[in-house]
Amino acid sequence: MKPFSRMLTPGWLISLMFIGLFVYLCLTTLAPWQLNKHEDLKARNAQLVESSAAGPVPLDEVIRRDGSLGTSEWHLVTASGRYLPVEDVLLRMQSVDGKLVYQVLSAFRTDSGDTLLVNRGWVRVGDNNTVPDFPSAPTGQVTFTARLRIPMDAPADPIVLNEWNMVRNIDPPAIGGLLGVDLSPYYLQLAGGQPGSLEPMPLPSTESGPYLSYGLQWMAFGVLAPIGLGYFVWSELRQRRRLDDEDNEAAEAWPREGGNRAAGPDHETTVSEAPSGPPAATVDGPPDEVADSDRLVAAAMRDRYGDRFASEYRRISRGGNRA
Q1: pLDDT tens digits, 257-288
Q2: Is 268 within 8 Å of 295 (Cβ atoms)?
Q3: What CA–CA distances, in Å, run from 80 to 46, 115, 144, 194?
């Protein structure tokens, strides 16, 4: 327990707190975050596959079903009605195949009286973020097929650029405020070849993505971090025990009090004969006399300070040898 108690230093305590916090975040926040994104992606892929296999259904039938409308996202629906004679709103900061585009959002009122946004497709961004000419939405009664979409929970951040109302995200309440109409909390994304469609937005791929592997990595980090800390603690304790054993061996080999025959076989010197001061840095005289003097000084220091001096002297000697 003595080597372990000496490790209770501020540095080790801070490391322990940091590792504990890191493990907590890995297992309760970071890993679940990535695994939840993986589950959301799986649900979206399943809806894409299901919508591709199923035929279009009337919009009124879908939006008036029981349950959450999000379970029907990406399904093909048919809608009949008219485009409203209001200006379009552009969705900015979008890209398709690496090209910067604007997505064109138009207001549409169904025959049942619902007013919603229709994403008619995209146009290329011109020089200096200018908006190129594109066909307006048709007038009169139309019927089209589109995919039902649920907006993301993100602010629209509306701005006016080149005399066009633009938004960063599709937020029906905010866009309705720009157009002066009340919009439904969902919107439609036109397929190609439909009345009013421009270049259609591509469907997302059904790849699983990296989220599952990221989640497993965070879980592995949360498990390996305390194991790594335990290894370093064990290594440090082993090193300290080794140094303590060396000090004990040095102390046992040190001249014991009660007598010292350092002066030779015909002369016995006791500890009381040794000087009480610290070891001299340099002693003049023959090598035998120098050695005898060092032994006498060591014996005197041991008599005064006990085994602690032996340990400290051992450490100083090792440092001097290395130097």
Answers
A1: 444 444 444 444 444 444 444 554 454 555 56
A2: no
A3: 27, 12, 7, 12
